[in-house]
C-alpha cells in the first residue's frame, strides 16, 4: 500500500457519525481481500451504521482500531512450497465466494 494511504489510515479519527463510519468502511472495503477475517473484524462497525440514531458502541472501538492496524500491516506474498501443508480459507456472502491459499499462516 502507498505510504500516504498508510499514514491516513493511522491518523484516521474515531467516527462521530454514520457518514464518517461509512467513509472509513468504504475505504476498507477496497482492501478487504487482503485482510484475513475482514468480515469478522468489521461487523461491529457495520452494526453502528444500522438504526435511526448513531451509537458508537464500546464494541465498535476495538473493531475500528483493529481495522486500522490490519489495513496498515505489510502483506507478504511468496512462492508456493509444495513440500509444506496448504490451508484454504474461504469467505462467502450472498453474491460471491472468495478463497485464499495459505502456508504457515
Describe the structure.
With 105 residues, the protein is an alpha+beta fold. The protein has a domain of 72 residues. 45% of the residues lie in helices and 11% in strands. It contains 4 helices and 2 strands, in the order ααααββ. It has a two-stranded antiparallel ribbon. β1 and β2 form a beta hairpin. α1 runs antiparallel to α4 and α2 packs antiparallel against α3. The longest helix is centred in the first third of the chain and has 14 residues. The two termini are 21 Å apart. The mean pLDDT is 82.
Strand order of the largest sheet: 1-2
Termini distance?
Answer: 21 Å
Question: How confident is the prediction overall: mean pLDDT?
Answer: 82
General shape: globular
The major pleated sheet works out as: 2 strands, antiparallel
Q: Which bin fits the share of residues in helices? A: 40-55%
Helix-strand makeup class: alpha+beta
Cα radius of gyration in angstroms = 16 Å
> Got a strand count?
2
Which regions are unreliable across 5 or more consecutive residues at pLDDT < 50?
Answer: none
The sequence of SSEs as H and E is HHHHEE
Number of helices: 4
Strand content: 5-15%
Secondary-structure blueprint:
Elements: H1 3-11, H2 18-31, H3 38-48, H4 60-72, E1 87-92, E2 97-102
Summarize the structure.
The chain is α+β, with helices and mostly antiparallel strands and 105 residues long.
Provide the descriptors you would attach to this structure in a database record.
4 helices; globular; alpha+beta; 105 residues; two-stranded antiparallel sheet
Amino acid at each position: 500500500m502507498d505510504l500516504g494511504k498508510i499514514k491516513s489510515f493511522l491518523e484516521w479519527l474515531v467516527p462521530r457519525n454514520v457518514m464518517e463510519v461509512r467513509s472509513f468502511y468504504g475505504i476498507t472495503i477496497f482492501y478487504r481481500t487482503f485482510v484475513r477475517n475482514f468480515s469478522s473484524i468489521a461487523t461491529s462497525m457495520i452494526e453502528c451504521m444500522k438504526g435511526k440514531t448513531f451509537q458508537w458502541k464500546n464494541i465498535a472501538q476495538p473493531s475500528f482500531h483493529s481495522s486500522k492496524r490490519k489495513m496498515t500491516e505489510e502483506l507478504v506474498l511468496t512462492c508456493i512450497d509444495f513440500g509444506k501443508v496448504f490451508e484454504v480459507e474461504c469467505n462467502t456472502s450472498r453474491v460471491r465466494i472468495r478463497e485464499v491459499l495459505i502456508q504457515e499462516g
